[in-house]
Design brief:
single chain, alpha/beta, five-stranded mixed beta sheet, 10 helices, 12 strands, about 40% helix, about 20% strand
Amino acid sequence: MPAEGPTPAASPPAPATPQRWRMAEHWPELVTALTDQSIESVVLLLRGLELLVRKGRLTQAEYKVLALPAERLKHVGMSAQQIVRFQSGRVRQSHEKIDLAYLLECVLQERRDELALQGLAVWRKFEPADVLIDPALGFSLAQAMLDWSIRFGHRIDLRLDLTPATPARARLRLETYADPVPEQDSVFDDGIHWLLLRQIAATDGAVELERSLDANRVVLSATFGRTLAQAGAAPAARPEEVSSDPEAPFKSVSGAHVLLVSDDPATCEEAQAIVRKLGLTVEAAGTEQAREAMRRREPDLIVIDAASLPEHAALELRTALAREHAQLPVLEIVPTEGGASTHGLHSGIARDALAQSLGPAVMFTLSGLL
C-alpha cells in the first residue's frame, strides 16, 4: 500500500473586498454638520442685529423683520438635530407621570415672545389629563406640534380632553384658523416639522398623530396611549373661563432663583438665556464662587455643569450640597446622553440636548413634577 504524501497546505483566505462607501449610510453626519453650522450662523446673525439695535443703527421694527426668518431657520435646524438624535436610538427614556396641561403651559411660556412677535393669538381649553411619557420627549412633541401649526394661520386653539372611548385617552388638538385657507398639498406635505413629529411619536411608541384640513381650520391632533385614569377629575373649563395670559399657570414658580455653576462660558451663556426665557432669575458662578453665591442668596434650584467641571470638583460640590442643602433640587448637565438621568432630585441633562431639555427640566423640577 503506497505511503500517503504530505497534506497540501491550505490556501490563504481571499482578501476581503473593500466595502464601497455610500453617502446614504452617512446622512446623519451630513445633517448634523449642516445644522450645527446653520444654527451657529443664525446665533451670530441675531447677536449682530441686537448689537445694531443697541447702537441705534436698527429700529425694533426693522429688527423684528430680520429676526423672524432667522429664528425660523434656527428652529428648522434644531428640528433636524432632534430627528437625528431620536432616530439614532441614543435617547434613554424615563416615563414619568406628567400633567399634560402643565407641560403645554411650559411650552407656551417658553415661546411667548416668539408668538407675540409673529402676532399669533393663542387660546386654550384644557381638561385634567395625566400621561406617562418621558418629560423631555413630551416637551419636544408639544414644541413640534406648535411649530407645525403656526405656519398656517393667525390664531391657534389648543384643546386637551379625554376621548369618549373606553379606556379614555388624552387627546391634544391644535386648531389653526387660516385666512386664506392653505392648499391641501401644503397641509399634507412631509416637511421637516411633520418628519420630526413622526419620529417623536415613533420614539415614544404610544402616540398617534393625525392632521386634517377642515373648512377654514387646519387641525393637528395627538392621542396618548399611556393615559392614567382620571377619577374625580374636575370638569373642563368653559371657553370664557380659559385664560389667554401665558404667565397665569406660573405664579407658583415665577420669581424662583436659579444658580448655575459652570466653568464653560459658552454653556453658561446658553443656559442662562434658556432659564431667563422662563421668567426666572438666574445667577452664574464658577466652581470657586458657587458657595459664596449661595451664601448671598439661597437658590430655589441649582444647575451644575458637570460637563465643564473637573470630576473631583463636581464630586466635592455634590457632597457639600448633600450635607448642607439636602432638600435643594439639583440638575446636572452631563457630557453625553448616555449619562443623562431624570430620576430623583439629582437629574442629568445631556450637553448636546441642552436647548431641548433644560427648559422643561427646570420647570418640572421647580413645580415638583420631577
